[in-house]
């Protein structure tokens, strides 16, 4: 699931003008939905206002009219809060991403693309290799490239820090998660989670978002974090979630989550590189189902 934004102006907008220069852009196919990055862009200068019109003219083919761009201010010259592209106002918000030089582009129809921006002064061989890597298949994408991104922080500067914490907004990607019904109490697992990469901490926002209706606000997560996860920042400051090593007697593949109200869930965590058919079987087994049973409404 993509981010759902509630701030988009409803007036019609268009980006009808073709690009003056064809942007140096490489996108994944629409079918590549499991990667954090949707592609890479190599602009010709560090002037964001100058570079955006050509980029948005091309991205509008995929997204439709575009109303907002969130960019990394460390990688561009000073930019205004908005600009006019093709006769429509596009909001421009800065955000310090963990994955350096990331850019989010939001369409008015709730679509979104995430780009890795390659600095304009990068030499051609390096830039070309980076663009190819960013658009490779999901299986070839290094796990460490999936950063933690607190999407509520990517909002207007007038919002307060109190909004920059749980409950999070809609997940960036729908987590591969299956839960038992609330009436099941005596089982080993309450559900199973099949993360998309080995960097589990980088996917926690999406998992917590999906579990909020069941768990409430998450207070504590205990797990045997792998090396990739430990080397990443655990979770954004102020989120109010404590990450712990396993509890006494906790199985290596079990994740314990505790809500602020004491609600407890235990999830089976399936390795990201597990073949799809095996992972599907493990998801179903963890919640007491088989392939021949229809999913039950929770």
Q: Topology, please?
A:
Blueprint: E1 25-27, E2 39-41, H1 48-63, E3 66-71, E4 82-85, E5 88-94, E6 102-107, E7 112-117, H2 124-134, E8 177-179, E9 191-193, H3 204-215, E10 218-222, H4 227-231, E11 242-244, E12 254-259, E13 264-269, H5 276-286
Parallel strand pairs: 2-7, 3-5, 9-13, 10-11
Antiparallel strand pairs: 1-2, 3-6, 4-5, 6-7, 8-9, 10-12, 12-13
Unreliable stretches (pLDDT < 50, length at least 5) are: 1-16, 137-152, 154-164, 292-298
* Distinct helical segment count: 5
Q: Percent of residues in beta strands?
A: 15-25%
Number of domains: 2
* Main β-sheet, spatial strand arrangement: 1-2-7-6-3-5-4
Fraction of helical residues: 10-25%
What's the gyration radius in Å?
21 Å
Number of strands: 13
Shape: elongated
Q: What structural class is derived from the secondary structure elements? A: alpha/beta
User: How would a textbook summarize the main sheet?
Assistant: 7 strands, mixed
On the 0 to 100 scale, the average pLDDT is 75
The sequence of SSEs as H and E is EEHEEEEEHEEHEHEEEH
Query: What distance lies between the first and last C-alpha atoms, to the nearest angstrom?
Result: 20 Å
């Amino acid at each position: 699931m993509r981010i759902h934004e509630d701030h988009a102006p409803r007036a019609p907008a268009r980006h009808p003008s073709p690009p003056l220069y064809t942007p140096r852009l490489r996108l994944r196919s629409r079918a590549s939905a499991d990667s954090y990055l949707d592609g890479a862009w190599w602009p010709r200068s560090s002037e964001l206002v100058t570079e955006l019109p050509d980029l948005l003219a091309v991205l509008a083919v995929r997204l439709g009219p575009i109303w907002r761009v969130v960019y990394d201010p460390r990688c561009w010259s000073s930019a205004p809060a908005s600009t006019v592209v093709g006769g429509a106002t596009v909001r421009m918000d800065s955000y310090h991403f963990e994955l350096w030089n990331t850019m989010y582009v939001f369409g008015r129809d709730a679509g979104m693309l995430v780009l890795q921006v390659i600095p304009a002064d990068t030499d051609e061989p390096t830039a070309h290799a980076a663009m190819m890597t960013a658009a490779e298949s999901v299986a070839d994408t290094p796990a460490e490239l999936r950063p933690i991104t607190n999407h509520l922080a990517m909002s207007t500067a007038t919002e307060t820090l109190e909004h920059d914490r749980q409950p999070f907004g809609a997940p960036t990607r729908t987590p591969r998660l299956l839960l038992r019904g609330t009436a099941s109490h005596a089982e080993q697992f309450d559900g199973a989670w099949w993360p998309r990469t080995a960097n589990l901490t980088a996917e926690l926002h999406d998992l917590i978002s999906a579990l909020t209706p069941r768990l409430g606000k998450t207070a504590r997560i205990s797990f045997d974090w792998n090396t990739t996860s430990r080397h990443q920042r655990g979770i954004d400051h102020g989120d109010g979630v404590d990450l712990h090593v396993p509890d006494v007697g906790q199985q290596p593949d079990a994740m314990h989550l505790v809500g602020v109200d004491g609600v407890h869930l235990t999830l089976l965590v399936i390795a990201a590189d597990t073949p799809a058919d095996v992972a599907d079987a493990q998801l179903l087994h963890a919640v007491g189902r088989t392939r021949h049973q229809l999913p039950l409404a929770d």
